[in-house]
Batch of 3 targets.
Target 1
Amino acid sequence: MAKLVSLSDSDLSASSEESVSSRIHRSLRLAEQEKRKNEAEKPFVLALKYFSEVEVGTPVVGNDEFENHLAQVEKVAFSKGLSPEAVSVMLEFAMSLRMGSSPCARVLKCLIPDSVVPQEAVFRAVVWLSVGKIPISTQVLFIKWVLTVFDMIDAKDKLRAIYGFIFSFITDENLVCDSNAFKLLGKAGRQPYLLHLLSLYKVFCPELVTLSIPSRMRSGFKNHISPWKSALMALQKRGSLQVASSISLNFTLKNKTGSRKRRHRHLELPELSRVTNTGVNTEQTSSRKLVPLVQIQSFEQLLKNMHQIELPAQMGSLLGSRLALQYLDCVQDESALLRLNFWLGYALHEEFLFCTDGGAGQNAEEALQFLNKLLSAQQFLQEGFHSSDAFLYKFLNIWDGSLLRPQILGLLSNIPVIPSSRECQNEKLSCGLIECLNNMLLKWLTWHSVYALEDDLDISLHSHTSINITLSGFKDSVMDLVCFVGRLASVGLQLEGCHSLLLSFVLDFYETVCDTFLKFGLPLVVMPPPGVFYPAMFATDPVSLDRLAYIMNRYKMNLTSAKSQEKVTSHAFHISRQTYQEFNNYLAFMVNCLWNSSMRCPETDIQLSEELLAKSGVPQPWMRFDLIHHPAFMMYAVEFHQKCWPGRKDMDLNSIKQAKPWSWYLEFLFTQGFGGLKDFFQNNISRPGQELDSAQSKKQPLVS
Amino acid sequence: MSVLKPFSKLPNLDTASILLVENEEQVQQGLAEALVEDSAQAVNVRLARSLPLPLENEKTRPRIDLVVFILNLTSDKSFKSANESLKYLDPGYFLGKVCFMVTNARYASGNMGRLDAVRKMAASLHCPLLFAEVQSPEGVTNAARRLLTILKVASGLVPNTSSLYLSNLTRCTKPPDIDQPSFD
């Protein structure tokens, strides 16, 4: 009706002015244009008024007034876009179902914002979503709309608070149960966007989505968002879209990348950018002033604005910025971590697990850089992200042991303590692996010494999760890891012929293990297996032997300190008799071999019969591994001999064993930098260097 | 005799023999070339689509030290064929002389059920389960290197160790739930 009246008005005025002169005609025409413009907007204003005031229960069928107003809104929406107020009014009208559910979808389809979408409107719509009886297809349409205009929502502080609610709404109401999901799928006809949403969920919480989803599914939302997207782009072309270029750039970029290259975009960290660039609106709608992270340039600025930081539109951008990581570390914002983890988990899954095209080699460089960025972020934060852990659990199952090995091992060493025993099936016995496991153990132990509570019962597993683990559970995990590495190292050394580089990495590991009690406060002592001890003992390089001596010495200190604590306090930890026995055997063997020139080793599982040794044809076999004849030290003995008796022609190394030369020889060895040996002998041999007859030297093994 | 036995023949001096069983015959050839190229020792590679092996070559066939089943995870037939072939192996082979090599695992990770079945099979037979990236030449070389490590032990070329000892560490174990860490 209103539209009809206004049309006849303008017709009337146009016909009455036909006979006026040209000059007046011109000015009048300008005025008339202005008037026309105003009047053209008038029906739109009327239409908005109609939609905001229309009574509940007004019929739709045969209602010309409604039809005309909606047509008017649609016309404006597709030509100029809707103002924030108009979006609010129309969204409120649609979601409140004042005229039933039939116009709802049609209104949603024409909701093309010209600048920003008020957060308040979206917030209210979500409320209606849970109150009203909106048909499922319309609910899905609404969520799709929110996804499309997400970057245009003016502020997200309130919205962020109900993220969990929105997610749980989707899962609880529709998608969780198989039956419900199928009902929904039946209604919506297994549409790709729905499957895509489900696949996102499967990544996020696989236990909730039991459907099997085809992995070949790339263009989930693409076709279905395009009506809004193309309208938005058309508006932008005409220059009527006031939103800054970052959003439109996003759209064009996404359109440009074809389906073949689509997967690559996960590997590029997004730029730090604001949610919207219309700062005025942000300040109006939110109670406090937010400072976007992109504007923070220095650490001082970060500290000043710590309480009012606005997170960027794409959380992936946080990984690339030191300041952003600092913020994340200080604030421990749950929702920020949740968003970051979601993004990261999705990117990792898409890129490394669901490969469809055969281009494994072509994005290797990108993958490398991506993982290196992730690694440096994790090193900066000194802990891993949940999503990368979850990804690793899956990826390790199908890893070939070489693809991106340094990065994967790096990520692996960041895995937090795993309560149950879980052996990663992996037979690639490399130094890198042992190093990775050593780093892992170091991180676990450091974490323990930092987070363990005084009463030593419950420990929070991750600094920002509530998962707890008991001390005994933690000990079991560490024990499993150490024993596993022991087995791995034994086999590895055997396969590689006791390679000294590998041996060095293994000794690195045991340098960590031998100090678990004194250095990290974890009441646990695990001895190395014979497969590690003996190769180190008989190694041909003096450095390995020196390190073994250092390790044995540290073991002794840990054990004695544990034992003295056991005597003092009642609830100290108990070290098994077997551990003491193992230690004593190793120690006795070392002292006997190096100092006493005897191969006797009491009560060990490895016994060499005299006959067998005699068969080897080596003269005086028991002397072959003392400090003079040990292959690692023979060179030093010869050098010492030459220095000690420069005139002698015939070399007799045994003459070093006499009282004076022996002590000089020890002094000589200790000046060569064998600190481990020095400590070992000072602690385990009584009066070192003063006992003339080496056979009389006493060893002091611990008694259990 | 249709069942393949590990110790029915004498070994050749300084030679290791490996049998690659693959129904699709996609990876076999490339892997065989990489195996021969990469090894310092003489390696004898035999190819087969499935077991049992034909009787006519019985005389000329060397003693097989390691049997490798190559499973393409994108194909159902691959798994079925390998499963059928297993019964033509002497139980002696399962003491460290059989391993499974899975290809295309990352391309079929949408289908976790198939991977689970393979894992169960390898775990029940106490065999190692290897994964290979056969789409790239580096991946094939790497797969060949890993097989060679096992092959050398299985054919007795590494002193002081045996395939049974190695398999004690490398054999596949079935974790209770591979998808999720158990505390989650």
Note: Residues 54 and 98 of chain A are 8 Å apart (CA to CA).
Target 2
Amino acid sequence: MLDRTPSEPLLSVDSLTVSFRTEHGLITAVDKVSFAIRPGELVSLVGESGSGKSLTSLAVMGLITDPNAILTGSIRYKGRELVGLSRHKLQAVRGNEIAMIFQDPMSAMTPVYTIGWQIAEQLRAHRKLTKKQARTRAIELLAEMGMPSPEVQVDRYPHQLSGGMRQRAMIAMALSCDPSLLIADEPTTALDVTVQAQILRLIEQLQRNHGSAVILVTHDMGVVAEVADRVMVMYAGRIVEEGPKEPVFMHPGHPYTEGLLRSIPPMHGVRPHRLIAIPGAPPSPANRPPGCRFSPRCAYRYEPCGIDPPLFRKEQQDIACYRAEALLEPVGVQRP
Amino acid sequence: MTSAPLIEAKNLSMHFKLGGRFSPGGPQVLRAVDDVSLTVQRGETLGLVGESGCGKSTLGRCLMRLYRPTGGTVLFEGRDITATGNRALRPLRPRMQMVFQDPASSLNPRRRVGDLVAEPLKVHPGPDGKAHSRAEIRARLVELMDLVGLQADHLDRYPHEFSGGQRQRIGIARALALNPALVVADESVSALDVSVQAQIVNLFMDLQDRLGITYVFIAHDLSVIRQMSRRTAVMYLGAVVETGSTDTIFAQPAHPYTGALISAVPVPDVSGARRERIILRGDVPSPLKPPPGCRFHTRCPKAQDRCRVEPPLLRPMTGGQLAACHYPLV
């Protein structure tokens, strides 16, 4: 599926840091995150609540508008720096080159206009189209999203649609200008499992047919296994593991990735008497432990973990864990 | 199944009237639960699974008698409680408790954990008919905190000081305060992060081993249902479409809806060949206007003319489970 030949990255994020000024001091939610997205690949950004995965994707979209937010680092799209770009210049990129879909379509649409009007507005903002042309294109897009009788649906308001149909309308809007990069933030989390399957298939088709790169933000390892080419696992504001899907799932290098995969109840085969849970809870951005942020919950913890681990390269995976480095020369760390 | 079931529903229905005379189109009837029969034996877990709007939560609330069902009967420990008044239900309440989805909204943020968990002990008298003394309550609180994996000094803190998983433990402690025989858990692990969800699933299972509690475990997550329950009932638009042993249902689903539901779950497995996927068309129809015949026929890949007219009844399948389908998968 994935073209392994090295190509110029579409998006490269370098040392992205998002902090917030609060009454309790500066809180760093996303901490020196770096990654690159190549054209046409589907990369999944996984993590639990508070991991910073949504903020990372909002930062790429230039949607962090909180006056107390401080954004540093670099976000380059097709070689062009997006950090510090004026609102006006950013708007030419946003929606046109990079589009985003959200968990809750109601928050991305206005309730007072029909979905057709909203898709047409987006089209007319970035393309030279007449109202009539834009409307025709909107109907085409809705049909492409698998919406039944699109010429009727185009005149309906968001609240008149079901959750799955609303999600389709939002995807149609996001894809109206053929973006090279689609950021999907938990696009199926609020949907029922049978509808989720439809939407995931739709996103896969779009990636294949339009050749768009997709960043799929999710907490569900099942969804990642289903659709992603590459995985980035975030924990407490950092990327802790990154690599192609197969090795990450078969040989997770970071204890957190391993724990996440093992804590999911199996759908087939023997039912374990107990699930292998990760003790404790993910830390809030305000109370992150020193050193390796996962160490208080980690079964493999040993002395070096008091110092923040860098990313170690192990074949195709990048792993922020001393164990990954130590595995080359095994150390006597016992599982409790 | 020789002993009497702990709780039993016979042809249970819960219809809500929406809108009055003056609403456009006149009043409508929402059939949230329609003619459901099921039994739960002592010490077992029955999993109730289905998509949003299938009536699983309403059914749970009917079993708890938080709603008065509009049809059928509910038997608790052999006693008909379908129309029992609130006052007469009170002595039974300690025997049946509920754990909710969102611990943040079911715990009063202005009260300490100790007060929240002690509330049922203050409201209900002990088994001897006398009110619990302060010393009894304190001792029970310490015992409960230990049972759910929290510390005694947590009793003096407020709910916001806890993580989601710990708050759910507090909700469980409160439900267990009066030693209930039945606990209805309504999406109790759905709002939790995966790594924490496993802890709470384990806690539910440990508590059952130790205390012999009977669970009705309501969830939309099939993997959680499979892990928790020995028997499962699958609901669609207010009706049970398949019920039986969890292992049979997951290995060999008979109803096409169950089959589609199970095949649609994304599995974190990259090793083998891709599983056969049944992708259903469209959305769940509105329970205000359920389709005639089989409720599932509008989305069913195997639907035939008969399904559009004749509603199928639950009947035994080759695997041993019951399914309501004219043309089952096995």
Note: The CA atoms of residues 293 and 335 of chain A lie 19 Å apart.
Target 3
Amino acid sequence: MNTPRSAYFAGLRDQMPGILGNVPFGMITGAAAVAAGVDPLLAMAMSIIVFAGAAQLAAISLMAQHAPGGIIVLTVLIVNLRMMMYSAAMAPYFRHTPLARKWLFSYLLTDHAFALVTTKFDKHQVPQHIDAYYFGATSAMWVIWQIALAIGIFAGTLVPAKWSLDFAIPLVFLSLVLPALTTRSHWAAAIAAATAAAFCSSLPLRLGLIAGAATGVIVGLLSEKFSRQEAKA
Amino acid sequence: MNGWQGWAIVICAGLVTLGVRASFIVLPPHTRVPTWLLDSLKYVAAAVLPALVAPDVLFRDAPVGETFNLYRIVAAAVATAFALKTRSVFGTLALGMAVLWLLKWWSPLG
């Protein structure tokens, strides 16, 4: 990591397991978009403009159900809110980065890039070529993700509707969220959110999702507060 | 959901996503992050994904006259157990789809 060039390739190499692990996720996102009746060109544009797999899948699922545009955008916002936490965690690493590049790096920020940088480097001892390292990791992720998505779109056009490929969307969400439920409060948040969303699923405009997410966050916070008090007592 | 409306949704979705990602990165250094905000954000992902999954698994494509889609519920339960054990995205996906197909095509319930 002595030169920008070596830092770039170090980032690329370190992120490679995450990048390859995302390939099936990208392919299924593309295939699900086509299965949901989203125009292939629009699905590809969404991937390039939004570049966030879980949000893309949520948007695709809502588009298939003809939800209103405002609700789809709101859902994308909610699904991506976790990245505000990543943004706060990453900010110290980009203290000396020029502003225009900060916007580019923000666009490229993913769960994987956040996890890689914050676990590998101490934010008080940021290496000199962190920008090149980060760009190596995220640019490779971007390119492979878009290729995987394009392959998925193409493959999706060949898959008949009765294969119920849209069921892949909840399955991917399950496999993303379950390993992240590391504490009792996270479990409480997840179970409360699922229950509330199920009970509110007949609300108009897919408001059940927002009701479920809000319930989950509140229950998670309350559960954390009570377990802290328990620990004190 | 195609045509100009689809494009408008995609562009707005891109803007809000960029806004969330850029939020603290483009703010001046040493901006204090309110702790209540970070506390709540911790639970956003844990809450929003299950809220998306639950109605999709329970009710989507339920047989005519029924409320629940039993095939999807069983397939999701198997996938959940597998995901908790292995943490594999691909394995969970493959197993869940396989169980659903199996139930749909070879089920004694028809």
Note: Chain A has twelve helices and no strands.
